[in-house]
């Protein structure tokens, strides 16, 4: 089977399954990183929901502070992509939720991603949820 035929089969299968094309080396991407600090009550729950990428959490927050590092990768010049919304909870915890931004990715183009790294205080509970990516807690 020639390379051209194999590529045509993969493209047809991807279209049939509703999959989008993965980014290529020629695609231009931009990276936007941010860092935030939030205070939580001792032993509080830090809930992280990120359907757009990976979540890495580990001990490293001191004085009941949570450090949140977010890196958004999106097609250069494309829509703004997802955004990270950080909200204190009524019980002294924290919600860190990645949500579609005001300009979501088009359904047929390359998708933006958000990777989160959190440093949480010792004794804090972490509840992490993602879709089709990894969660790493140490």
Our estimate of the beta-strand percent is over 45%
Q: Work out the number of β strands.
A: 9
Query: Which whole number gives the mean pLDDT?
Result: 84
Span of the ends, CA to CA:
46 Å
Output the strand order for the largest sheet. Answer: 1-4-7-3-9
Number of helices: 1
Please mark out the parts with pLDDT under 50 across 5 or more consecutive residues, or reply none: 1-20
- Helices and strands, in N-to-C order? HEEEEEEEEE
Shape call? elongated
Largest sheet: 5 strands, mixed
> Residue share in helices?
10-25%
Structural class: mainly beta
Determine Rg (CA atoms, Å). Answer: 18 Å
Task: Describe what this molecule looks like in 3D.
With 138 residues, the protein is mostly beta strands. It has 1 helix and 9 strands, in the order αβββββββββ. It has one helix at 3-16, and strands at 29-39, 45-50, 55-61, 65-75, 83-88, 94-99, 113-121, 125-130, 135-137. The strands form 2 sheets. A 5-stranded mixed β-sheet has the order 1-4-7-3-9, with no helix packed on it. The termini are far apart. Mean pLDDT is 84; it is low at 1-20.
């Amino acid at each position: 089977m020639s390379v051209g035929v194999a590529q045509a089969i993969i493209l047809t299968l991807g279209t049939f399954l509703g999959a989008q094309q993965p980014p290529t080396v020629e695609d231009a991407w931009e990276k936007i990183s941010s860092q935030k600090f939030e205070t939580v009550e001792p032993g509080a729950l830090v809930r992280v929901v990120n359907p757009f990428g990976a979540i890495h959490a580990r001990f490293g927050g001191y004085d009941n502070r949570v450090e949140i590092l977010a890196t958004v990768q999106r097609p250069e010049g494309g829509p703004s992509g997802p955004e990270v919304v950080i909200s204190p909870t009524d019980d002294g915890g924290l919600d860190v939720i990645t949500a579609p931004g005001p300009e979501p990715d088009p359904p047929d183009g390359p998708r933006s991603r958000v990777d989160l790294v959190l440093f949480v205080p010792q004794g804090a509970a972490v509840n992490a949820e993602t879709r089709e990516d990894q969660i790493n807690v140490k």
